[in-house]
Amino acid sequence: MANDVSIVIPVWNGRELLQDLIAGIHGQTLAVHEILVIDNGSTDGAPEMAERCGARVIRLGANMGFSRAVNRGIQESQAEWIAVLNSDVELATDWLERLLAGAQQSGAWFATGKILSASDRATIDATYDAICLGACAWRVGSGRPDGPVFSQPQDMWFAPWTAAVFRAELFRKVGLLDEMFESYLEDVEFGLRCAYSNHPGRYVPGAMAYHVGSSSLGKWHPETVRRISRNQVFLLAKYYPPALLFRLAWPICISHALWGLVAMSHGTFGSFLRGKVEGLKLWRTARRGGPDLDGDRILKILSASEDDISRVQKSTGFDWYWRLYFSLTLGGSD
Predict the structure, then answer these.
(1) C-beta of residue 252 within 8 angstroms of C-beta of residue 131
(2) What is the three-class DSSP state of 126?
C-alpha cells in the first residue's frame, strides 16, 4: 500500500497531547511521508517539542483559527493523501493503514473512522456527520454507547476533521476549507461541496481513534456556541437558494429555535443570539462566497442526511432535541 501521506496537525498549545500524538504517528503500522504541525501562536513550547520529535513546523505567529491553519498545511503538503488530525487525538496503531485501505478499496475521496471518547472508550465521540433540512448538524452517535449500528462501513459525505484522510486531488476539485467559518461546521460546509460535486467519502469503523475533545475552549464555552450559531447561518446563506429557504422555512425555524434551547440549558443563550446576529450581518458576504446551486439537488442531499439522523436516532434512542424536531416537522425516514 502506498504510504505517500502527509499528516497535518493544527496546534494551539497542548504540548503534552501533541507529543503523545506524534509518538502515535511514528508508531503507526504504515509509515508517513511527513508530519506538518501548523502552529497558531502556541506559548507552551509545543512547536519546539514537535520539531524535536521530527515534525516540520509552520509558525503562523498568532491564532489564525482551525480552517486557516489546516488550509496552510494542505497547501504545504506534496503527498498524494493528506490526513488531518486534532492534536488531542490518540490513534490505534493501525488507524492510518485501515483508513487508507477502506478509502482505496471503495474508491472514496476521503475517509474517517470510529472515534471514541478518550475518557470512556465504550462511548462514541464521533463517526461521521449529518445535517437536517434546517441546517443544524449532528455528529452521529456522539455521547452514545458504542454498538453494532456504529460498526458498519458505509459511504458518507460529512467527515469530522478530528481525524480523517483525504486525497490531495479532492482539494483541487472542490477547494479548501472556507475560512469564514474559522472553526465549527467548517467540515459540514466542506461535505456539502463534496456531496454536490459527487465526491463521496467512506466511514471505516475499523480505523479507531480516541478523542479528548474540546481541549482548547470546551464544548459549551461561550465562544464555541457563538461560532456554531453563526456558522449555522452561514450554511443557510451559502447553500439555500431563496426558493429553498422559503420551502424549508419551518424546519429551519424549528431546528434553530431548539438549538437555542440547548444553548440556554448550558447557560450560553446570549452567545447563541450573538452568533445569529453576526451571521445575519454577514449574510450577503457568505452568500457571495457560495456557488450557484440547484435547490432541488441540495434538497435531495439534505433529505437523505436527515433520514440518516432519523434512522440512527430511532435505533439508539431519541434525544430530546431530535425527538422534538422530528415531531414538529414530521420529517425523517418512516
Answers:
(1) no
(2) strand
Q: What is the pTM of this model?
A: 0.94
Q: Which of 118, 91, 108 is nearest to 204 (CA)?
A: 108
Distances (CA, A) of 325 to 120, 143, 252, 285, 319: 29, 19, 10, 29, 10
Residue 50: what are its φ and ψ, rounded to 5°?
Answer: -60, -40
Q: Indicate left, alpha or beta for 218 from its phi (over 0: left) and psi (-120 to 50: alpha).
A: left
E strands of the chain, at which residues? 5-11, 34-39, 56-59, 81-85, 89-91, 110-117, 124-126, 129-131, 137-139, 154-156, 163-167, 201-211
Q: pLDDT tens digits for 191-245?
A: 999 999 999 999 999 999 999 875 455 678 999 999 999 999 999 999 999 999 9
DSSP class of residue 212?
A: -
Distance CA 234, CA 189 (A): 9
Helix (H, G, I), strand (E, B) or coil at 176: coil
- Cα angle, residue 308 at apex, residues 304 and 310 outer, rounded to 5°: 115
314 CB-near residues (< 8 Å, 6+ apart): 332
